[in-house]
Amino acid sequence: MRSLDPPPPERSAELRRRFAEEVRSERPDLTTLCLLVGAEGDGALDEAGMDAAQIELDRLAGLLPYRPGGPRAWARALGELLGERCGFHGCAADYQRLESSLLHKVLVRRRGLPILLSVVWMEVARRAGAPVYGVALPGHFVVGFGTPGQQGHERVLADPFDGGRVLTGADAELLVLGATGAPLHPSMLTPATPLEVVARILNNIRAWAAVRPERSDVALWAVELSLLLPSHPARLRYERAQLLVQRGDFLRGAEELDAYADVVAAVDRPAAERVREQARSARAMLN
């Protein structure tokens, strides 16, 4: 399998500038953000390729029937088009491929992780005027149709990873039970915002790279994009520092460790001192 080459530094800097601008906009665009993530992961994705992905989503939306009915009819229409006619689905092997987390690759391969397939479903449905939203169930992202939060309105869940299969309440319960061992809680059905979707995609990429030490480059750009999100855990700075040291950038890694220690010191002085000791060890590697 050919590894994806990163973009050159100038291109990467421009992508990150646009990513930071988009995540801070009043209404962040999910497709744009996913394609910027894809371009950071695949240097071959240029502006023409990003435009082509947008055009493909438009094309797919144009194949949907005009206002087929309520939420269940929308879910079935998306499943028939994307799952059956176009063959979008997932399998266990897709978890082993970085391409499964990059939207432009998923549109070509028609395979991907649940969350990326859900992005395809959502963005195609949204273009066609469907009442659609993402649902970040623990361990398995799905798509909702309908108007959440309004009593008496029909809401339907579909699983794009399974070709768009419409889920019963029992199906959703089993998905959550299998992932967490705990029952489904109504709060788990809250619509996911675009930034929450992108944060979860980046988490998946970091998890993919974490078990592949030779791909610390992927882990680093995924962490650095995550740090551009308006809301992110402070521990990401520690993760970035560790990656810099791992990749031989000892001075910058040590500086990041010291900066993180300053944050931690306010709540846990012993932990902060341990981090500072790591910073000293990193600087010692320069000798």
From TrEMBL:
Residues annotated as signal peptide: none
Span of domain Protein SirB1 N-terminal: 56-203
Q: Pfam families from the xrefs? A: TPR_9, Transglut_core2
Q: Which InterPro entries match?
A: SirB1_N
Q: Which domain of life is it from?
A: Bacteria
What's the family? Belongs to the UPF0162 family.
Q: What is this protein called?
A: Transglutaminase-like domain-containing protein
Organism of origin? Streptomyces thermogriseus
Q: What lineage is this protein's organism placed in?
A: Bacteria, Bacillati, Actinomycetota, Actinomycetes, Kitasatosporales
